[in-house]
Amino acid sequence: MNVQRPDPRRTPPASEARRAQRRRPARGAATLLTGVVLALWATACVVLPPPHAHTLEVHDGGRRRPERAQPEPPDVWHTRGLVPVRVTAHEQARVVFVEVDGEHHRLARRGDGVALDDGSVQPFVVVAARTGSLELEGVDHGRAELVAIPHPVQGLRVELWLDLEAYVEGVVSAELVLWDAPAAQLEAQAIAARSYAVGTLDRRARAARAFLWDGVEDQAYRGPYVPDAAATKRGIPARLTDAVRATSGQVLTFGGRAADVRFHAACGGHTAPAIAIFGPGTAGGTGTATCPGCAVRGGWSRHLERSTLDAAARTLGLEHLGRPVATSSDASGRWLEVELRDMRGVRPVPANELRRALGWNTLPSTWITTWTELPDGSADVTGRGRGHGVGLCQEGAGDLARRGFGAHEILGHYYPGARLTRVVPVDARHAER
């Protein structure tokens, strides 16, 4: 998911008396309702023991030898409720170093399989932490599991298998500035992140084995939160953990299904309709919300060098990238479709594709207010907002939390028509049978 960090400078929380006097968002359709308990992990699935292929386990200093390989990794989302997270930094890596329960392992691509420490080659390898933790290239992922499979092009593909709540805590710490985020904002962000994960995995599982990327393609995940001394003194780790625990299992639904709801750093004053940015069928449809505080702080300006524009042109298959002409915009003025011109003619392009080609940070949003071409081939661009503008606005959510709104009220403001539901973990449903 493309979400950038909000400005960390915040004002102190308002007093309780002032909170009661301040205006709240419209109720009714924009208020989050409580739904029924819904099992979202394959409601008819039979829970089986963990079906590991090559699990490297440590037992009193000895290592159990791998068992027979399965043709492909198991679907841990539906059978065990674990979140499969693909590690972008290790896509097509020829060698991956893993430390599990204090032992080091080297996994390498060899032919059509994965080579183990002992030189044997298997279709895929699962490494699981049993008594300690799992470290991937120096990053401690706690009691996670890792699977390495041959990448379709070359090298390896690496996935981390994570507990849902541990994954949510990692996403919140990566996607949000925690320094002075109020509890209600942390809780709202946790529910939004969990909803996106469950909704996206549920949707992708209909076509293939489900997974999530660890970057802007889905949600940022960099491992468990590791605070410095100042953050620990401020109590940030405890506040983060409390927010995730307080909302454990809670997800947003539309039409009875977990919703892959979106969120972003700053809307610039008004959020965008999901259907306009991501197309039909996107959770949230045409719902939007206003953010008066974000409107004040949401402006930006960028100077785009000629080299940056030329690189984007090549990505888009053009000879030159001149001033885009907006052919479609949302009600706020956020570009949806643009026309790009070069010597070969005019090409229509979704505004998000233009932003992707230039770089998510180079062009903070598609809400462009001015685009000025300069004589040297560079351009000066101004605009509003940071991110795609759909769903929860992190700047605005912080403002509402400081005005006394609870997490559910914040979510009701940004996701009108959504219902709040609690997912049932696989192990819990198995125990109830």
Automatic annotation (TrEMBL):
Transferase in keyword set: no
Keywords tagged on the record: Membrane, Transmembrane, Transmembrane helix
Biased composition (Basic and acidic residues): 1-10
Annotated region described as Disordered, given as residue ranges: 1-27, 55-76
Keyword Flavoprotein in annotation: no
Transmembrane segments: 28-49
Domain Sporulation stage II protein D amidase enhancer LytB N-terminal positions: 161-254
UniProt-listed GO biological process terms: sporulation resulting in formation of a cellular spore
Position of the signal peptide: none
Protein's name according to its UniProt entry: Amidase enhancer
Species of provenance: Rohdeia mirabilis
Gene name of this polypeptide: lytB
